[in-house]
Amino acid sequence: MTDNSAWDDVNWDLDFESFEWMVHLAACFNSHLPTNLPWAVWPDWSTDMPGFVVDDHRPGWLSALRLVHTHPRIAVAGNSITVTDSRGTARVLEDVDVSSRWWHVDVCSEWNVPLEVVAALDARHGPSPSHRFVPGQMEQICLGVDDDVLSYGLGLAVVLQAMLDGVVLFDKATDFHAARCRFCRETTYRQGLRGQGFEPGKEVVFTCGSCTSEPVTN
Ligand SMILES: [Zn+2]
């Protein structure tokens, strides 16, 4: 079913190849629906917007487009989506299109985790020295759908929900441990094993990249 009046509200000044256009057109085609209902109409646009979406994945994309359009702390311009979390920090997803499956999100540029976030993480996981700071290795985290049959649109919706929350990204970025290479004795922080190995001399032992690539000679 095509609602012909959908075209009345279309802003023809937008870039037809942008994600912003996709959000806008979907909003026009679903504006007749009550605001509490999910969007159900895939826009009748011949070039299929920034990329082709198979029928099965369209409901997932419609839910992501609806979230972008309706949430007061999400904005879209061109191919960038800006999300402001509940603590007021704005983060940007760049180059958004329908073929995007994995998203790199900058958690924070400061070393220290805000004290109220540390308290929330301690309450959730038990106290951990990793909750107090975000080392360079963890500043940016990768989010997305690890399931081929799931619509990437649903994956984007999950990423946006994580970015709206003030704690979820820090929860992921503070899941790291202190490690020491068994060969060169260099210490570093590595993903996972939240808070383990922080006592001096008790670091988690591993083999670092440069020691792994050394030829084995006995
Ligand atoms: Zn090493």
What attributes does this structure have?
single chain; 218 residues; alpha+beta; 2 domains; 3-stranded antiparallel beta sheet; 3-stranded mixed beta sheet; 27% helix; elongated; binds zinc ion
Descriptive report:
The protein has six helices and eight strands. With about 220 residues, the chain is an alpha+beta fold. It has two domains: about 5-175, no CATH class; about 175-210, no CATH class. The protein has a three-stranded antiparallel sheet. It has a three-stranded mixed sheet with strand order 7-6-8, with no helix packed on it. Helix 2 (about 60-70) packs parallel to helix 4. The longest helix has 13 residues, at about 60-70. The model has no long low-confidence stretch (mean pLDDT about 90). Zinc ion binds near residues 184, 186, 208, 210 and 211. Zinc ion (ZN) binds near residues 181, 183, 184, 186 and 210.
Bound small molecules, by name, code or SMILES, are: zinc ion
Low-confidence stretches: none
Q: Give the distance, in angstroms, between the N- and C-terminal Cα atoms.
A: 73 Å
SSE topology string: HHEEEEHEHHEEEH
The assigned structural class equals: alpha+beta
Average residue-wise pLDDT:
91
Share in β-strands: 15-25%
Radius of gyration: 22 Å
Number of β-strand runs: 8
Within the largest sheet, what's the order of strands?
Answer: 1-2-3
What is the total domain count? 2
Main β-sheet: number of strands, strand sense, barrel status?
3 strands, antiparallel
